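Hey, resending since the last one bounced:
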Amino acid sequence: MVMNYNCRNLRESKYFLSTEHKPKEMARLFCFPYGGGNASIYREWNRLLPPQIGVYPIQLPGRGARISENLPTNLSSIIDELVEAILPLSDLPYFFFGHSMGALLSFELCRRLRTHETTPVHLFVSGYRAPHLEDSEPHLHTLPDHEFLQEIINMNGTPTETISDKSFVEFFLPILRSDFRICELYRYIEEVPLDIPITAFGGNKDPDVSPDDLKEWKIHTTNRFNYFMLDGDHFFLHQQQSRLVNMISLIGIEEMKRFTMKR
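The structure tokens again:
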């Protein structure tokens, strides 16, 4: 049984970036950041989404308002914490959106939450190959700093002026290395597929995630599956933010209608 918590107070918890409460909120979208990112990358989404959908950007340890906390060392510890964060807010229909590392987190969180007899009504994954596919790339997190940094630059996700700031790099690299380690050491364990719809998004210029990688997400659901390629590289979620959020809005509203009809 899900208790009715005060979502205003939970919104201000350490787990979420605080965003404006929507009085007409009828569903919740939890957004998971990519490796090295924090909840602030979703700051504009609450404004872009319709009034019925509230946005809850996930803040991971060791960044943002949680900068004083230790960086996570494994996926399981993050999932344990996220279960604690999400369960009190599962009294309304909710969705997950995760980009890159965030896609992996949201997928594994879905699998854990169903043991608590709750799951999102829709899972949106973005910029990440299906989790059962083996990563053919070498472990970047083991590279020396200068080589690791060059790989990050090649991904086009960090402004050049930021990379040239030595103090920022010294601060930022441990976070990135920790997140890459979590993803690169991840090992998929087969379970019964989810019974919720999955929509996958990819960038048509992403050198690391192909359309075929995205299509493979279909084996992880017994429900509906679709995928879309948007213009941009691995960080197309910024380059195509308005279009991406609009697509999520349309799908989310349809899911809310289906949810209401089932009740």
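The longest strand covers residues 27-32.

Sorry for the duplicate.
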